[in-house]
Design a protein that fits this description.
Blueprint lengths: L9 H14 L2 H5 L2 E9 L7 E4 L1 H15 E14 L2 E12 L5 E13 L2 E9 L1 H7 L3
Parallel strand pairs: 1-6
Antiparallel strand pairs: 1-2, 3-4, 4-5, 5-6
Length: 136
């Protein structure tokens, strides 16, 4: 039996990414990302764009979310795996620091995992619900 902490199975790599993110462990999160990762936050999302490199992803996404939101968490609940493709149905919960408004919004994430590392990520989310929580 393979150890979860070192498993290169795509779903295990993705799950480690969620656990690291929830724990605020950016070093462990970066360890799941390929050096040339392409991480895309959906158009309309406050951090919309494509970020490259593990440092680029954590600096432009995770650290920014931490500045604007309290308790930002992606709760992963359903995994659909097809080879190197992992689609995760989840929900985001958080409270916006500026407005105090909370979110509890469904999200879908598509990961591509090769050689035990995430090489691509794409987010699908109702961006209007996130933006509404950011506006008075």
């Amino acid at each position: 039996m393979t150890d979860f902490a070192t498993s290169t199975a795509p779903a295990d790599v993705v799950r480690r990414q969620y656990l690291a993110s929830a724990a605020g462990d950016l070093e462990a999160l970066q360890a799941t990302l390929a050096p040339d990762v392409e991480w895309t936050e959906m158009a309309g999302f406050p951090l919309a764009g494509t970020y490259r490199t593990p440092d680029g992803v954590t600096a432009n996404v995770m650290e920014q979310l931490g500045k604007e939101w309290d308790g930002w968490t992606a709760h992963d609940d359903t995994y659909v795996v097809d080879g190197e493709n992992v689609v995760v149905l989840a929900r985001y919960t958080a409270a916006n620091k500026a407005t105090g408004k909370t979110i509890d919004v469904r999200v879908a994430h598509h990961f591509v995992v090769r050689g035990g590392l995430i090489v691509r990520f794409e987010q699908f989310v109702d961006t209007a619900l996130v933006r509404d929580a950011m506006t008075d």
